[in-house]
Amino acid sequence: MLWKGRRESGNVEDQRGGGGVKAGGISILGLVVAFVAWKFFGADPQQTYQATKQLTTQSQPQQANPESLTAEQKEDGAFVKTVLADTEDTWTPIFQQNNMQYKAPRLVMFTGAVRSGCGTAESAMGPFYCPADQKVYIDTNFFRDMRQQMGISGDANSSSKQAGDFAKAYVIAHEVGHHVQNLLGISSQVQQARQQSSKVQGNQLSVRQELQADCLAGVWANHTQERTNFLQQGDIEVAMDAAQKIGDDYLQRRATGQVVPDSFTHGTSAQRMQWFQTGFKSGDINQCDTFKSSI
Ligand SMILES: [Zn+2]
């Protein structure tokens, strides 16, 4: 994936390396780790909140001192800003074509733990979107975890210890997809519907919401490719590999040795791959109605 030299977004807050927010309680940490073990990726905000509201905070987040950042962290920052700009340049015209205005989300880079409008989050929970403050949160160390803990492959010809660039970009585009759902009112409709449904039905709604975010990430890839021709050989395969490794069935099987469909909240690997491809091939948000289709 080519990304250097393109516009960088000004909507990124860099809180890495500062004092940050410290989470308290070893047993709570254990709980979080257990939670993460099978729901590593893009935890839905409600669950994030549920798991984090018990954490206590000790200090306010601080703005990073650029001099304290490593070369890798600086590179990560430029990468995240570029991909966020790509999402802005994708969604602004799509919203315009539908007579709406795209209000871009802000993105917070942090290390360790962070205080968000959805509670205090641990970096081990993976990136997430908080609808309450309309911000995406990501600890850029997650890019290493994707490769070293989740086994998502890196770029050929790169000495980086991280997952491949397009897999990392896909993660950001998925979280921005949740922001698009929030702006379109889909998130609040899902939340309302969940309140009136059983746990099983509620989980199925969550799956549909997650698969839609994957489809919207595909739409982003389509439009960014049209605009910048950024894809390189093997990129789509890297994203498919990532989608496969972060599907709920894969994570559950790794964690428990068995698959419990009714507790899925992100969809199976096959579903995630399929919906990313639907968005990527069409570039059309109307193809991303995961609530109507049989998934
Ligand atoms: Zn998600």
From TrEMBL:
It is found in: Membrane. It holds the Pfam family Zn_peptidase. GO terms for cellular component: membrane. The keyword Transmembrane helix applies. Keywords: Membrane, Transmembrane, Transmembrane helix. Its main location: membrane. It comes from the Bacteria. The keyword Transmembrane applies. It is a single-pass membrane protein. This is Neutral zinc metallopeptidase.
